[in-house]
Amino acid sequence: MHYKVLDRNEDRRDIRGVTTPTTPDQHSSSRPGLRWAAAAGVALLGAWTLYNSLPGINWVLWTGAAVAGLFLVARTAGRPLGSILFLGAGSIALAGAAAITSSPPLWFLIFWGVVFLLALQMLLAAGLTLRSISLWFAALAPLQALRLAGVQSLRQSGEAIQQIRSNRARAWVRGLGLTLPVLIVFALLFAGADPVFAAWRDAVKDFIGGWEFVGRVVFFLVLLVIVLGAYGYAASAGGTLAMEARTPNRWLGATERLILLGSVAALFWLFLAIQIGYLFGNLPSLPTAGVTFAEYARRGFAALTVVASVSALLIVISERYGNADRRQGILRLLTFAVIAAVLLLLGSAFRRVMLYEEAYGFTTARLYAQFYMGAVAAALVFLFLEVTGGFDAGRLFRRVTTAAALLFLGLAYWNHEAWIARRNLDRFASTGKLDITYLARELSPDAVPAIAERVPSLPEPTRSDLWNAVRSRYEGRNIIQQGAWYEWNRSRHRAREALVLSLESP
After folding, report:
1. What is the value of pTM for the model shown?
2. Residue 13 confidence (pLDDT)
């Protein structure tokens, strides 16, 4: 499928391929006040809670407000709401993870994940369904949404200027121009007679007098442009995503596919046959192997993972752009043989990481590698289903993306760094080895409660060295201190409580 954005004066082709003239939407200019009010409210909330603030419940509050505003505008404009609800729920759930974890790498991924889902949500407000999402559509979604939001924001601003020129609007402007100075003067007079008003006056003075005021205003304006444009697009038919059905250019012949898949399958199964004795076994126990445990655990892990990923892509290209003839049954068997071999290779790579963890400790990088392999395995299972039942590249992308999103949500909501800390501390009891620097410096505040829980059971001087390293890292740092209520984060809250209790204990 091919997607493009049509302007107000272009014809558009609907999902069935029928070309119909585009007419101005009856809702495109209706209720502009609702769009401005919703966009201004969301932008104000963002400028208040997001600017120069640590991630916490502020992320889920703002995302929820943005989704609710888009839903309200789309509903008023008579747009289909199923896709908006589904993607909105996903973006809110993802933003909620920012209030659970305090891991900066996860914050980074959560941020871009929310941006991606909100962009998709805006584009699907044109009337498409979730089935319209393909790899190409999703890849261009953030840039496409940003461009359309800018165009629509300019259009909404132009319409607002036209509205202001009316007699009724000019009366409102004159009324506000007369009223605001009077209210400001009275408020300043009240500040001299009431401590509450005086505190408000001082707070406003400090806020305006600092450079933060300028940055926050700019941040508000940027959010206003983006949100107003998104809401304007949802309410207008001037930019409608059209989907043109295109037959894929099948440039890969059946003979070429047979040679390619047959050779790859033979190579993979030859590799498995040669290493069958130690692929899943304990090679270092063999005295003639000549391989240390570390070399065995690390050897080929990256290569096996890359082979698995590239093999999945190779099969997708073969199915998407390959021709079929009477040998289609043989091609399918070869494809299944490659998928089965790749799954075995993934199992071997996964086990190598487990052996490495048992020998040298647990880290986030090693755990993330295991989650990645789980995502690749899920993709291979979905690929097997597609090859069996009729290949659809868009459906495969949606299934794989959903599985990867669910895995990431599980990782974000699960306190995996606390689990890593506990496993390393348990491992110390049997091996006597502990990487204090990694536990104290490399892990986020997510791990602090788990460390505090296990520290009393450690012998000296390891106990003092570890806890002193943790204290020295977080002492006086903003990442662990109490901030505004909208910066509340469960991980930081628990880490702060653990550190306070440790200082109070004898």
Report:
1. 0.81
2. 39
